Amino acid sequence: TKFVYAFSEGSKDQKDLLGGKGANLAEMANLGLPVPPGFIISTEACRAYLAEGREPDALAAEVAEHLAALEKTMGKALGQPDDPLLVSVRSGAKFSMPGMMETVLNIGLNDESVHGLAARAGDERFAYDSYRRLLTMFGKTVLGMEGHLFEDEMDARKAQRGSTSDLDLTAEDYRELVTTYQRLIKEHTGAEFPQDPREQLDLAVRAVFDSWNTERAVLYRRQERIPSDLGTAVSVVAMVFGNVGQDSGTGVAFTRDPASGAQGVYGDYLQNAQGEDVVAGIRNTVPLADLERIDKPAYDDLMRIMETLEGHYQDLCDIEFTVERGKLWMLQTRIGKRTAEAAFRIATQLVDQGLIDMDEAVRRVNGAQLAQLMFPRFDSDAERTLLATGMNASPGAAVGKAVFDSTTAVEWAERGHDVILVRRETNPDDLKGMVAAKGILTSRGGKTSHAAVVARGMGRTCVCGADALDVDVKNKRFTSLDGVRVEEGDVISIDGTTGEVFAGEVPVVDSLVVRHFEGDETAEGDELVLAVERVMAHADESRRLGVRANADTPEDAARARRFGAQGIGLCRTEHMFLGDRKALVEHLIIAESEQEQEEALSALLPLQRSDFIGILEAMDGLPVTIRLIDPPLHEFLPDYTDLSVQVAMEDDHDRRDSKHHKLLDAVRRLHEQNPMLGLRGVRLGIVIPGLFKMQARAILEATAERKKAGGDPQPEIMIPLVAAVQELELVKADIVQVAAAVEDETGVDLDFKVGTMIELPRAVMAAGEIAEAAEFFSFGTNDLTQMTWGFSRDDVEASFFGRYLEKGIFGVSPFETLDRDGVGQLVRIAVERGRATRPDLHLGVCGEHGGDPDSIHFFDDAGLDYVSCSPFRVPVARLEAGRATS
Ligand code: ADP
Ligand code: MG
Ligand code: MG
């Protein structure tokens, strides 16, 4: 294998091999842009080094060969005493890992060549400034010394000069710093700073390889789900100098605003500076626009190049550049990160500029970004006191009183307070508090910490790893870096979208995009809303998958429809048994004769019927899939202990006949060790046939009534938890009988479908037979995931998922994103077998995965007809379904 590549051999499409930085340097060089010459050591060399613990044999010779070529181009040798070539040694992996890995500048300087550099530039101060920078970076990166050792000396020098600016340091200061730094290096490593330029180069390359596996790099990759075995490439680039006086400088720029997407001149510039100075905040930078005044020709060059880059990459680029005595040099470019808002704006702007088409625009945004735009936000115009910025672990804007333990969180929440649970880190014992809280804030842990994983699972706002906060759980308070103290009960605001933590209550505003979806006319005409609308319209045109909503009430159904739902994929009926109706369900359960049972059922019938009328009306003309009752009946009964107490307090003689007594009996009778696998779903329908028949009657009477009123109801009756076709056949026969009766009674012809959920592995295997009785399948991927993995979702997410994620057993919870290799295979099998029996079998999914971007792409690929998700996710699903085909 070849390990080293010339810029002319590379291109932007070779990020795997050359790293993002190297690939784009090659691309720019080949575009004819002013890039200092150099070469790239591949990620393959890094992988070989990491595997073997030493550089591959061929590497040294290849580096020598490319170095010789570079020296020839530059007309000088690395570290040449009278006129040294200096190089930078730069890390750069396939995925950008900002600030994670290392770069060393000014390689090639030593006690001799520093004189040569000074003489050539006619500037001794510049030469020693460059040398002390090399010693600092080499000391930190290659020799593993603490940065503050060097910074403290620098600060002491400035203090001696009575200044805080490096500009006031003289050549003399820098020369003395160089001496001091060399002494520090000797003290701390026992060896002299290497004077041999080639040795410097080799050690720096090795240090960059090693930086792939620093703790923070490992952690960052885990958080960002970047594979750990990619390795980094190393770019070796001839130095250009922004620190040779006021006519030089260095800067960063974006081709447009990464926050809003607006076109214009965005960036920062710093005169007489090198490398990281711009972002390190050593001095105040000036806005990029000022470069026009400082150095018009360089500015014009830069503007021209930025236009070239945008045209070439057809996207927002971010850029690093340096001006050396009036000459502009490009040091880096890449497709720039951007906010969700900017992503939509930029995508449509690029279409208008003719750079990309609408298909590409749809690919350039994603559902996660759209979801971000739909969360309520803190009003950025309001006055806010920022306490810290942590990780944006789970989006949303939450305001509440700070509490520091789970028990208090639960108590205060029960008393009606909004609370934010603040912990150093959370563990499974905190779960109750997390459920009770509006938001969760931790000072430790990353995006896969317990707090983050659980919060995302529950849709709770969460900021984690805000390590600037000193959380003192024992004394129930935390302190910010600036010394602001927040005690238990003080109100704070946390922004899970940005990771910001604010003191006090920050006002919340509804998202403009949601207001638009809701039909609020004041949101029309806004540029962002227009951009979102255009992208959504194209996604709708392109997608093959239908998108329905999970909705149980007419209000939810109406909202889902406004959000673009094409029907209801899951209408749960169990909530229709709660509230005031609980008493009726209790009657049903404790009924002692068939007659009592029937009385209880007929009391429920009109209530259910009116529920269905409302929903069918809200979704008139669109399919409404109604699932018959699924949960075990004891979920509708009072708590065992409460009941026992009540029974104990009643007089002896009326005890036996009391309702409480009968209920207590029922609770005992219905108790199950493992209700998830107990008497629920279709099993209830078979044990208490009257229950399903009543529900079917309510649905069909509602349908008849809607038809009479001139509507177009399209009910689909769905049977849960079917494992065998016989179960479905039994229930279906009852439904058909009820339908015939209702048709007779009302004189209305009824159109409806009967289908089943596929949520048990057995149902998957028997899908061919089940399809003989089912007109549609709806994959209940929540249960299917539970049943396939043998995980109880209510128990495992808090107890061991954190560990599983940490160990990489899965990269993301299988309840969040469909497990393609296991559960996904079952879906494919059921699709194939079901369609083999009934080619027009209609297929959908109604588990939570129906709103998850990655899962939606899978369902599209598996050939389902629609996904169904919560009303709020409907736009996200529409967009992702469009992206799946664009
Ligand atoms: P990072 O990945 O952290 O941005 P870089 O490799 O881009 O690290 O380098 C750090 C800084 O040094 C950047 O500001 C970059 O522009 C600057 N730099 C890198 N190589 C050179 C060079 N050959 N000449 C001048 N400046 C350089
Ligand atoms: Mg850089
Ligand atoms: Mg289920």
From TrEMBL:
- Stretches assigned to the PEP-utilising enzyme mobile domain: 418-499
| UniProt enzyme class | transferase
Catalytic activity reads: pyruvate + phosphate + ATP = phosphoenolpyruvate + AMP + diphosphate + H(+)
Task: Establish whether keyword Metal-binding is in the entry.
Answer: yes
A Pfam family of the record is PPDK_N
Instruction: Give all residue intervals belonging to the PEP-utilising enzyme C-terminal domain.
Output: 533-881
Q: Which domain of life is it from?
A: Bacteria
Q: Which GO terms describe its molecular function?
A: pyruvate, phosphate dikinase activity
User: Is the keyword Nucleotide-binding assigned to this protein?
Assistant: yes
InterPro entries with a match to the protein in the record: ATP_grasp_subdomain_1, PEP-util_enz_mobile_dom, PEP_util_AS, PEP_util_C, Phosphohistidine_dom_sf, PPDK_AMP/ATP-bd, Pyruvate_phosphate_dikinase, Pyrv/PenolPyrv_kinase-like_dom
The record ties this protein, via SUPFAM superfamilies, to: Glutathione synthetase ATP-binding domain-like, Phosphoenolpyruvate/pyruvate domain, Phosphohistidine domain
UniProt keyword list: ATP-binding, Kinase, Magnesium, Metal-binding, Nucleotide-binding, Pyruvate, Transferase
Q: Where is the Pyruvate phosphate dikinase AMP/ATP-binding domain?
A: 16-53, 57-284, 295-345
Give its E.C. classification number: 2.7.9.1
Which coenzymes or cofactors are required? Mg(2+)
**Which family does the UniProt entry place this protein in?**
Belongs to the PEP-utilizing enzyme family.
What's the name of the protein?
Answer: Pyruvate, phosphate dikinase
Q: State the organism of origin.
A: Nocardioides jiangsuensis
Lineage, uppermost ranks: Bacteria, Bacillati, Actinomycetota, Actinomycetes, Propionibacteriales
